[in-house]
Amino acid sequence: MYKRLTLSLAMLAVGAAMLAASGIASTGSVDKQSASQGSVAKKGGILKASLFAGIENIDPQRSYYVPEWQYEWLTARPLLNFAHALGARGYRLLNEGAQSYTVSRDGRTYTFHLRHGMKFSNGSAITAANYKHTFLRVLNPAVSGIQTKGKYTFIIKLVKANALLPTLVALPPTGAEPLNFALKPITSPSSLASGGRYYVAGYTPDRVIKIRKNKFYKPLGAAPMPGNLNGIDYTIGVQQDQALLLTEKGSLDWPADGLPSTAWGQLFAKYGTKGRAQVFSTSVSDYVTMNTSKGTFANLSARKAVEYGINRKSLVKIRGPRAGYAQCSLLTPAIPGYKKCTVYPTNKQDITKAKSLSKGHTGHVNYWYTASTSGTLIQRLASSQLNAIGFTNIDYKPFQSGLFSALGKKGNDYDFAIVGWSADFPDPYDYINKLLSGQTIQDVQNNNTAYFNNATANKLMAQAAQLKGSKRYAAYGNLDNTIQKNWAPIAGIDNRNDREFFSARVDTKSIIQSPIYEIDLGKLALK
After folding, report:
1. Can you give the pLDDT at residue 426?
2. Backbone phi, psi, residue 419, to 5°
3. pLDDT score at 401
4. How far apart are CA 131 and CA 118, in angstroms?
5. Does the global pTM surpass 0.85?
6. Which end of the chain is less crowded, N or C, counting CB atoms within 10 A of the terminal residue's CB?
7. Do residues 154 and 100 lie in contact, with contact meaning Cβ atoms separated by under 8 Å?
8. Other CB atoms within 10 A of residue 297 CB
């Protein structure tokens, strides 16, 4: 699945997500972590993982692909951090690089007091200047609201109060970076120094990533980052069918970006769902994104034809057993405010309705997709469903990796794609505003890949972002359905499950789910 980070001053200035008011996220220092595996996990060893698709970007401030964030959760040392805990506790915010912080009365100035003695994996000290450098790499280098005061005080001044800020500074791309990281994107370094429990010790584009322990890492009063393994070796470009065979044999420990849909039935029959093969519920939504800014799907009737013409249940089924649940909403049951969508059919198509809507609007379609085994099967099935309702003039563009990045470049020529979104935090803002607000559209790194920009919808989203508690969640649940019904910029497909398979070398008791990062790599251990 793919996600993109858009951390800009404009984003920080818009309506707050008010997580603190929701009671889901809180701040603190050391917190008792989940002890599901106790202290019996074996220390040491190198986990052998594979990726079919290459990572989107080795640059920590520009990466936003789930496998990247899974290891960056352990390599980064952000100001705050999400707890290594199960369920809702995994969304709790703890002080990490910051020993403490204060917020001004007007909510616009955050002052972070850093821990003394933190070090990067190259042995150099981590100070306020390093956090400033990180934010300048993410933001416009000319901004004036990012300041330091001495070596250990870091200050962020916002244009407008936004309680979402503590959550944003807990995301991996906000971790401290060495001052010698250029402001321009890093492309193919042989290694990357970082301040967390681990660091990227080796990288060859489209071939391998080597993660190793940072010998200079010390918690210094923060909740210790877990780290049973000595490291992880990712081999890039392993076909999913091959990854299955290698994992069965034990020469591979974990296919990090999944297996063919046809594999899961046999794996669950052989191993069940609590051992080497496991299933977790997630906050992931899969959906069709349609380019509303040009071409065929600038037309509302054409978009609604897709809403009625795709068979959501069959698209879920093609992923194999326990893949997830069909739905036409964007929000998932794991997110406060979720309201079941009944606007469009979820278990079957309405071909007659779809054809009546598509008549006269079935122009050329550029269909972009990820060319994994599962991605190709989904592309073929979705194409047949488009053909059945009149969209027959389709060209295809396969991606080995980087689909979401390509979709996020304003002015591209895509028309139709199927993508997934996983929550950064349990608030509907992270789905509705991030993915559908026209106010977020920029030149690159767009989350709103539909380029949906409707003044009425923008106003409703901005108003919802200002609400708190039950009123907030009710507004977002209704808004999710209203946007799909009135404008249909995307077509929700499903709420996806996370299915994982490991080799016999892996201690299955150490497989712990994170509500944000899916698998807690810090807790994984070998037998």
Report:
1. 79
2. -135, 175
3. 81
4. 12
5. no
6. C
7. no
8. 27
